[in-house]
From TrEMBL, chain B:
Pfam families: ABC_tran. Keywords: Antibiotic resistance, ATP-binding, Nucleotide-binding, Transport. Residues 17-247 form the ABC transporter domain. CDD domains: ABC_DR_subfamily_A. One of its GO terms (molecular function) is ATP binding. It is found in: Cell membrane. It comes from the Bacteria. It is a peripheral membrane protein. It comes from Rugosimonospora acidiphila. This is ABC transporter ATP-binding protein. The keyword Transmembrane does not apply.
Length: 540, 261
């Protein structure tokens, strides 16, 4: 049988396919329609905001306009770069893997997918925002400026789209692997956690009103593909017309290179083949050495060391734990800074009190420590691990991470706040509060455990009681502060000569609370191990 | 046949596992309705039952993971619920519905198990290396257990259960989702273990496996033991599958329906 001769496929097929998919978004399931309407609304809002911002950049002071164009443009391109990494599969319509079985030449496919990507809410929203650039260009340098801005904006739009496509297909295989998705989770956690500090930095920069360093960054950005197309009109306005083709050339060459790379990786993306499994190197030395990290090697290799080692590994390997740890650390660093750096140079909160949140929150992360383990806790139950060893091993592992962090934060806040004299008693308070918080969290974790769903399964939910139980962790933090209040009071009241006494008392207080509580609750854990296992088992 | 009467004690000692009147109630549902069972030392015991018969619930109560509503469980004479440390020292378990600490690599997981069991590090290293070699897991190197295939997960779970050389092995569905090669490897290891004086009880709903390797069989359905004894006693000259279907009850053939097939 002869193979049917095929007509060359035109690019418009892809555009029509995409349009039809968009149209389907308006029909069918209500949830999908709502999702589509929301994305349309958000897209429109972003487009108008972008248009206004870019447009206004032509009407404000010259250097501020340059800043807006450079940073706004760079943010736009970076957004196109990062968003598909975080939400892989948002644009499933034109997932390259779907075309794997069709006999399409690579060139057609690449061009078609590009056109398809352009037609869509993000593409159209970006194009609309870019028009604002033309308005600004016209305001700065007349019709020629508007023309350059249109050209630069168009090139950058192309860059955005090629970039996001190249990233999705280039990393498609990687994005299918668990490691990379875990990594993406960390990036999200970091981004979310750094929103607060970023705001502080920006507001302080605005307050100090020194644009020179920022402008220097913007000038460098202007020569990278991220922002070159956006600042090109300013060359005309500044009387450097020869720089315009250079800047546009930078963007065009980048687009060409990316398009080439994309076409090459497209085929492997269509196959959806993951590479060789990572990290299959053989293990050298004994297995016990492989488990125990260097910090724990001086400890006797037994149950305590094993649990501490496994916990340490889990704080870095379990994405749920890792993201809570990162947010707690970032939050713990920001709160004392925010409390101390009040505007108007008022004295602010006393140092020992300012680090209270940091110390207490650092340990409150253990309040549902068994929930993170889930049914894996059965292994401890089967090995009849004594409850106090269990709780102490876990506390020790967290402390290996948290104590240096606390130390750095407290010292940094004291030194940069010119309160070196308060440092020693503050360290004592921090030790007492951290210890008290570990003690409280140990009690909560045994008595009020609840399952933590795996992040990768969106259908698993811990239900309403979990959030109520999660709130108890905050109550626990208050209890911890109260139970460390004698040391706090001593730090605030006692004269500086007794600073070292406060430090010693704080250390003893914290350590004592941990040892006594883990012993008492550990015995209770020995009695109710099976009930704890049932409590952290996710019912399906 | 009454459960208590089958005290087939192979070498004249106490049973490796003795269950007495185990009952488990979940709210209104009676999952296990009074199970008595003696697993003789040195036997290869198959616990058969359809899905939802209560096999996992029963074994979980026997090893100390699930507190029974009533009844007792003894491992080599030690009560699992009043003397757990001694009982669990003699016990190796491969649970089915339970996760492992799967963000460790295979070797790390074995080291972890060994240290939790209080074994000396040198012994852990030596035994782990042998187990990883025999089970063909040495090549996996630093791959985390969460990235293992289903069969590899079963194998590393079995290695964890064997590491401290227990006298009784309790395995929940050890042959589930295991390919034939790995399946016969596991069977061979378990045979060696029983020949060396160990005792195995495992749950399954695959007749062929049970018929091929078990010395004793118990059939569990609706939370009760329906048949129990040596393999030959239970079979009584028939096919094990026929006995199972007859004992469990249930439809195995179509009648007038589905004529359009």
């Amino acid at each position: 049988m002869a193979v049917i001769p095929s007509r060359p496929v035109s690019i418009t097929v892809f555009v029509r396919l995409k349009l039809r998919m968009l149209g389907h978004g308006l029909r069918g399931e209500r949830r999908r329609v709502i999702a589509f309407a929301i994305s349309l609304g958000v897209g429109l809002w972003l487009a108008v905001t972008g248009f206004v911002l870019f447009g206004v950049s032509g009407a404000v002071r010259h250097d501020i306009g340059y800043l807006m164009a450079a940073f706004g443009g760079a943010a736009l391109v970076l957004g196109w770069l990062l968003l598909p990494l975080l939400f892989f599969g948002v644009d499933e319509t034109l997932d390259p893997a779907r075309f794997a079985l069709l006999p399409l030449p690579r060139r057609t496919l690449a061009a078609g997918m590009l056109a398809g990507a352009m037609v869509g809410v993000p593409g159209l929203a970006t194009a609309l925002a870019m028009l604002g650039l033309a308005v600004a260009g016209g305001l700065r340098a007349g019709p020629a400026g508007a023309g350059v801005a249109l050209l630069g904006g168009g090139l950058n739009l192309l860059l955005c789209i090629v970039l996001s496509r190249a990233v999705t297909s280039g990393f498609a295989a990687m994005l299918r692997s668990r490691r990379v998705r875990d990594l993406a989770g960390v990036v999200i956690a970091l981004l979310a956690a750094s929103m607060g500090p970023l705001q502080l930095v920006i507001s302080s920069m605005v307050g100090h009103a020194s644009l020179a360093p920022v402008l220097r960054v913007a000038r460098v950005l202007g020569w990278t593909p991220l922002a070159a197309g956006f600042v090109a009109p300013y060359d005309l306005a500044d009387g450097r017309p020869l720089a315009v083709p250079v800047r546009l050339g930078i963007v065009a060459v980048t687009v060409a290179l990316l398009a080439w790379w994309w076409a090459v990786t497209l085929e492997s993306a269509m196959l959806g083949a993951a590479g060789a499994p990572a990290g299959s190197r053989p293990v050298r030395g004994g297995v016990v050495r492989a488990l125990l990290p260097a910090v724990l090697r001086p400890v006797r290799a037994g149950q305590f060391a094993a649990i501490a080692a496994r916990e340490l590994r889990y704080w870095s390997r379990d994405p749920r734990r890792r993201s809570s740890l990162i947010s707690i650390i970032v939050g713990g660093a920001v709160v004392p800074v925010a409390l101390r750096l009040t505007p108007g140079h008022s004295p602010g909160v006393p140092l020992p009190l300012a680090v209270a949140f940091t110390s207490v929150a650092g340990a409150a992360i253990l309040a549902n420590q068994f929930g993170f383990d889930g049914t894996a806790y059965a292994a401890h139950l089967l090995a009849a691990v004594p409850g106090r060893v269990e709780l102490r091993g876990r506390a020790a592992a967290l402390s290996v991470i948290m104590v240096p962090v606390l130390l750095v934060i407290v010292v940094a806040v004291a030194v940069f706040g010119d309160e070196d004299g308060q440092l020693v008693p503050t360290l004592g308070t921090a030790a007492a509060m951290y210890g008290a918080s570990i003690a409280v969290a140990s009690v909560l974790s045994v008595l009020i455990a609840y399952p933590v769903p795996d992040t990768r399964n969106a259908f698993a939910s811990a239900g309403g009681s979990a959030s109520a139980k999660g709130l108890l962790a905050f109550v626990g933090m208050v209890v911890a502060v109260v139970s460390a209040s004698p040391v706090l009071a001593a730090a605030l009241v006692l004269p500086g000569a007794l600073a070292w006494v406060v430090l010693a008392a704080g250390l003893a207080w914290g350590l004592g609370l941990v040892l006594v509580t883990t012993r008492l609750v550990g015995d209770e854990l020995d009695r109710r191990g099976p009930e704890l296992l049932a409590a952290v088992t996710l019912r399906v | 046949m009454e459960a208590g009467s089958v005290n087939v004690v192979l070498d004249g000692t106490q049973p490796a596992l003795a269950l007495r009147g185990l009952v488990k109630r979940f709210d209104a549902k009676l999952a296990v309705a009074g199970v008595d069972l003696d697993v003789p030392t040195g036997s290869f015991y198959g616990l058969l039952g359809p899905n939802g018969a209560g096999k996992t619930t029963c074994l979980s109560m026997a090893v100390g993971l699930l507190r029974p509503s009533q009844g007792r469980a003894h491992v080599l004479g030690h009560d699992v619920w009043t003397d757990p440390v001694e009982a669990k020292r003699r016990l190796g378990v491969l649970p089915d519905s339970v996760r492992m600490f799967d963000r460790l690599s295979g070797p790390e997981l074995l080291a972890y198990q060994g240290l939790l069991r209080g074994m000396p590090p040198a012994q852990i290293d030596a035994r782990s290396r042998e187990l990883l070699d025999v089970l063909g897991l040495a090549d996996a190197g630093r791959t985390l257990v969460v990235d293992y295939s289903a069969g590899m997960k079963k194998k590393i779970g079995l290695a964890c259960a064997l590491l401290h050389a227990p006298r009784l092995l309790v395995l929940d569905e050890p042959f589930e989702s295991v390919d034939p090669v790995a399946g016969s490897l596991i069977r061979d290891i378990l045979h060696r273990y029983v020949e060396g004086g160990g005792t195995v009880i495992f749950s399954s709903h695959v007749m062929e496996v049970v018929e091929k390797i078990c010395s004793h069989v118990a059939i569990l359905a609706d939370g009760r033991i329906k048949a129990v004894g040596t393999l030959n006693e239970v079979r009584a000259g028939r096919d094990l599958e026929d006995v199972f279907v007859q004992v469990v009850g249930g439809r195995v053939a179509t009648g007038e329906e589905l004529t359009w097939l």
